[in-house]
Amino acid sequence: MNPGIQKVYDIANKPGRLIIGLMSGTSLDGLDIALCKIEGYGQDTKMELLKFETISYTDDFKNEVRHVFSKKEIDLEKLCLLHPWIALQHAGMINTCLQKWHIKSADVDLIASHGQTIYHAPQRLHQQQKFGNATLQIGDGDHLAVATGIITISDFRQKNIAAGGEGAPLAVYGDHILFSKKDEDRILLNIGGIANFTFLPGNDEHILCTDVGPGNTLMDAYMQEQFPGNSYDMDSLVAKAGTVHERLLAALKEHDFFKQAFPKTTGPELFNLLYLQQAKQTSNAASLSPQDTMATLNRFTADMIVVAIKDCLKDKTKIKIFSSGGGIHNPLLMQHLKEQLPGCTFLSTADTGLNPDAKEAVLFALLANECICNDVSANTIKSPGIPAVAMGKISFPA
Prior knowledge:
CATH class of the largest domain: Alpha Beta
Number of domains: 2
Order of helices and strands: HEEEHHEHEHEHHEEEHHHHHEHEHE
Oligomer: single chain
């Protein structure tokens, strides 16, 4: 027997596992590294976040990824080179953290790597009938495993698509394990580059996980274009200085994506600066000031989250919303949400004991744990668009 297979078997049968979860989002701000102690699996899982750090990306890293990120036409050689290079950069960051934390790589059971999304292409977006849903994350798992000496599970989204999903969002699997509560309806709202949420009804029926539209992606892209050196609108200062332009806001909302049924996915392939430019042209707002543009983009993100949540809640008037992701640090955005959803109680995942900035990295650690431990036929999620599958490809160190 391959000794790596034997080791995976032994890890799966341990009472608890040390798993490093990695998350690198579309904002390209840095790599989230979460060291988790996980016991059990499925709904019996117990998770403790032992260490967490975000290592900021250098300008060189960001520029290299932007050569291929969210573009239909790219340099294929560059893509080929970036696939192992990103993995080696991430491996170096992991090794640095382990040194800092005084933890030996031999004591870590698994790495769970999301990789770096460079293109997300659900059929609803590409609209080519002979092709199905597709997505691409780079940062090769074999290079990660060899460079760290730790068994690596990566490329989670492909199995979800192969089983009938759209490859995103995957948060529902971990959200259901960590946050579902009997007889209490909850929403887990994540505002990253794209905004998405998981609805966890207290009766465990009709669970929903869906993207709703842009989170920070349009606001961040516009800030980077208009204010070089500023990757985002810190403390909403630019947006607060502006006024919402109602015609532009209406034009931004006029895409068919917002009329499509849930669950659905999207990405910066749709919601980008070209999308904003076209909306400005149709609304005669081409000369709008940066402040008014940012105020409008902020409100746009908030409005589409609110519309989606209201559609999900139907006749429910009170619910707890646990927020995470970079958007929770945008005070104007959160103000808009609270004003438009007055019956909801807004909390963050910190109120459950989980650092909201670490949540996505932790969720991938949970997916790795499920990959090697769980009998997927026992999956209690039986909702449309959420395939009951174990996800991830296993890579062994040399």
